[in-house]
Amino acid sequence: MESVLNILWGFPWWAWVLFFLVLVAIRDIFVQRAHTISHNFPVVGHLRYWLESIGPEMRQYFVANNREELPFNRIERGWIYASAKRENNYEGFGTDRDIYAHQHIFIKNQMLAYKNPTDHPNNIDPSFIPCAKVMGAYNNRRKPYRPASIINVSAMSFGSLSAAAVEAMNRGVMKSGAFHNTGEGGLSSYHKQGGDVVFHFGTGYFGVRDKEGNFSMEKMRQLVEDNPCIKAIEIKLSQGAKPGKGGVLPGAKITPEIAEIRGVDLGVDVLSPATHSAFSNIPELMKFIEDIAENTGLPVGIKGAIGKLDQWEQLALIMAKTGKGPDFITIDGGEGGTGAAPPSFADHVSLPWTYGFSSLYKLFDKYNLTDRIVFIGSAKLGFPAKAAMAFAMGVDCINVAREAMMSIGCIQAQVCHTNRCPAGIATQSKWLQRGIDVPLKSDRLAQYFKTFRKELIEITHAAGYEHPCQFTMDDAQVNVDDNDLNRALSATYVYNKNAVPFKGMQYLLDCPYLGGKDYVADIQKEQNTTKEVLNKTVLEPQKF
Ligand SMILES: Cc1cc2nc3c(=O)[nH]c(=O)nc-3n(C[C@H](O)[C@H](O)[C@H](O)COP(=O)(O)O)c2cc1C
User: Is the Cβ atom of 155 under 6 angstroms away from ligand 1?
Assistant: First the structure.
């Protein structure tokens, strides 16, 4: 035995390499049948597969220019990373964009910008922008809710995101006064870290389902009663990346924790059907909304991606006739993100955000319903100028999913569907998510939201307004084509936004339904102190 080992040890290193390559060649030619290239070009054929696998990273790091990549280019990602870290997020030397390009947006500045009076809430917190409308106010819900932030975390479930990512996001929304939408996977302990929560469910009714997988009102009522952090409920009809597409959660992925949170059996495949079992038509959807609102007292909204308009029109018609209906509507764009979707759906089904939203707003305007609804927009709107355009078009808040992921470290590896997210965000791998420092990442999300709001308020002031709800369709222009280089949004999308009643930022700060408890309390405390100091200064003039 010893002599055999001695002979083997005696071989030079290159003989071992040669031996290994011969083994690979034998496997390529005679054993495997799956890869023609490896069979026809043994050993070297592997190079092709390897180069192809690292191609996206090579292009992202070395080849793609700053504005080239999708869904988010390097400049956009860099702006989020720098904003989240409170680093210098400016650019030098002027824009590197072709501002004559098709679809380029311009916000029209006022000759003299808006100036905050002394004692204005934005002098205390330059990032304070609550929603100008109250969810559930029109329908007299028992627990109306005014989001304390106009930017919030969009639906992403625990399951598609890791526990560490969900926890970091919830702590982040608490620090910035925003709300956290649970996504379809139910309410987990990671969503209960102090931030306001919007409970979201889809056709799987996870967290509020009975044994047969049907919606359970009793569970819904109990969930809301046990969790005062839930401020509103969102029924998912569809999302931009895969409208009308069901899904399967494989039994192998169902851990005891996920089984408990979602209310499903351990190890058994769970179906999320393409359609809801709780309602089959618009009148039934209307009744479902009212039942949930009546049972929970909370504002109830719906989320959808826009395609055909006939059923939306039916909804608007019933709302106009009955005086009832959803308290908020989240409109997602076809360019929206997902944990996993077939490319045919993600690329082609449902309209892009501006087309979808403008069609829907016009429809609700036709029935005089826009003031009753809080409109939430989502799909790559997490950038201040794009948000300003969305406000001009009629949104009251925006939701961000992938931008929120980037603020806590997502590098756009685009492998959410493989469970191998290198940043530990879209994975259930314990090892990968261990890399997330939850307190640090929650600060990053909060800082991204605050920087975003601060820049949006600066753009708002530049346009001569106090709050972005005051933007009109004539305050923004878009390049439409070569002959008519740019047109106001009102001419491009053929409608005018209705004025949102707005009585000043102080009025919003004083609203009893304002969310973001801890964040708002800090502003109020600081404002009271400032007032005390001001009063004292007036009463006791300094002697010189
Ligand atoms: C990882 C991930 C999971 C998502 N999960 C859900 C979900 O459970 N329900 C839903 O309606 N939308 C879901 N979405 C869509 C987002 O909520 C959002 O509508 C969409 O990504 C557009 O926003 P964005 O451009 O800011 O990412 C998910 C998106 C991502 C990236």
Answer: yes
